[in-house]
Design a protein that fits this description.
mainly alpha
Length: 443
């Protein structure tokens, strides 16, 4: 071995898109293996059938519909299908793509299933074809956009419509939603300037509100759903703990200089677009994902909450976006703000909606990262109220309800912060230039 080869590399060679995709697929496979180990193939098959035909409005915990095994297998299989689409499309595996796929994994525990996401994905593909652009340039929009997948299930399995009406209406609505998401997301990104990471949640909230208003005007009113399982913290906590520890370990396996890379990650504001894979490499990014996931799980356990489908989905949203904007320094102030909000308002910190607000509310992490932890606390405090009030306007049919609320909070709060801070000192201009993916609304 030469002296040059013996020296540690300060900038490890980037891993291929195929390697990153295989890493995501491996975690999807881990969910499948865990699900089969918990319930067995026969029970999982029955549970999957129940999940596919269920109504998926917020909150529908698939663990309560088909069992823990079926919920985890649904999540794993759906993510593997998404990985295959990414592979066939030749998509770049950026931090945004990793965040997108981990959202599929998490939300497939309480709203996305093997049936209901595809009309929206196809709708985005039709938009790309209409524009004469490769689907790979819009693929993140497609899989982020399946936040509105419950609309398809709600129409398809409506007891008030005959199948001859519900089937084409559900498919047509899904295709139309997918077609409009990309241009709408690109425009709405400007409102919060990347200070809410779930731009598609904001977009889906507005699009979902319009769709629900349209259908309500014809007398089609979705009924609320609430399925929330309890009592599985030890089993699920052990599984999650192993996954998060493996992320840190694999991160060190790829890059022994993970601590130095984490310093780069934590120094970033997180304002979208901030791709941690491009910034620090896959090793530090995976370590950040594992650490952030552990923080999310620790918070739930500390406040006496339950680990179930929606909560794990929220935790994996943090994990996914730990590749694209979130890190310990900018998520903890948001969670603290939601916690303080629960003390000052007439609800409990372990109420389902507040637990989810504390986790999903970390979409506002760039506010803490750019303007300081104290503004992050303020953002979390305000978000704890906003997240509980916007759901009725889309009837729970937008799975990214917190993303919708956070988009509103960021759009109002950020200009106020800038106005206050510019009285005493100049602040950095909004992060520019936006990359082409952000301009297309893929964040």
């Amino acid at each position: 071995m030469t002296e040059e080869a013996a020296q540690p590399r300060s900038n490890p060679a980037p891993v291929s898109d195929r390697t990153v995709l295989l890493i995501v697929a491996a975690y999807a496979a881990a969910f499948i293996a865990f699900g089969l180990a918990v319930d067995g193939p026969a029970e999982v098959a029955r549970g999957l059938a129940a999940i596919v035909i269920s109504r998926d409005t917020l909150l529908t915990d698939y663990f309560g519909i088909g069992g823990i095994g079926a919920g985890c297998v649904n999540a794993g299989l759906l993510t593997l299908c998404a990985c295959f689409v990414y592979h066939r499309a030749g998509a770049k595996m950026t931090g945004s793509a990793v965040a997108c796929l981990f959202l599929v994994l998490g939300f497939a525990l309480f709203g996305k299933n093997l049936l209901n996401i595809w009309p929206i994905v196809i709708g985005v593909a039709l938009y790309a074809r209409f524009r004469g652009e490769a689907f790979s340039t819009h693929i993140n929009t497609a899989f982020f956009g399946v936040a509105l997948a419950p609309i398809f299930s709600e129409i398809l399995f409506s007891g008030s419509l005959a199948p001859a009406v519900s089937v084409p209406l559900a498919i047509g609505t899904g295709l139309a939603i997918g077609f409009v998401l990309a241009p709408a997301a690109a425009q709405l990104f400007k409102a919060h300037m990347g200070h809410s990471l779930y731009n598609m949640g904001f977009t889906a909230g507005l699009v979902g509100t319009l769709v629900v208003a349209l259908y309500k005007s014809y007398g089609f009113v979705p009924n609320p759903v609430f399925v929330w399982t309890t009592g599985n913290n030890v089993l699920l906590g052990t599984f999650l703990g192993l996954l998060f520890a493996s992320m840190v370990a694999i991160g060190f396996w790829f890059d022994r200089r993970v601590p130095a890379g984490l310093k780069k990650v934590i120094a970033a504001s997180g304002q979208s677009p901030t791709d941690f894979i491009a910034l620090a490499g896959i090793g530090p990014t995976l370590a950040n994902m594992g650490i952030c996931g552990a923080i999310g799980m620790a918070y739930i356990v500390a406040v006496g909450g339950e680990l179930n489908g929606p909560v794990i989905g929220a935790i994996f949203t943090i994990v996914g976006f730990a590749a694209f904007g979130k890190h310990p320094r900018n998520i903890v102030p948001i969670m603290l703000g939601v916690f303080l909000g629960s003390l000052a308002k007439p609800w409990n910190i372990d109420d389902p909606s507040i637990l989810l607000a504390a986790l999903f509310g970390t979409t506002l992490a760039p506010i803490a990262g750019r303007f300081g932890w104290h503004w992050g606390v303020v953002a979390g405090f305000i978000h704890s109220s906003a997240a509980l009030t916007v759901g009725p306007v889309h009837a729970g049919l937008n799975l990214y309800n917190n993303g919708f609320a956070a988009g509103i909070v960021a759009s109002v709060l950020v200009p106020v912060i800038i106005a206050i801070q510019t009285r005493t000192k100049p602040v950095a201009a909004a992060q520019e230039p936006l990359d082409t993916a952000a301009a297309r609304g893929e964040k």
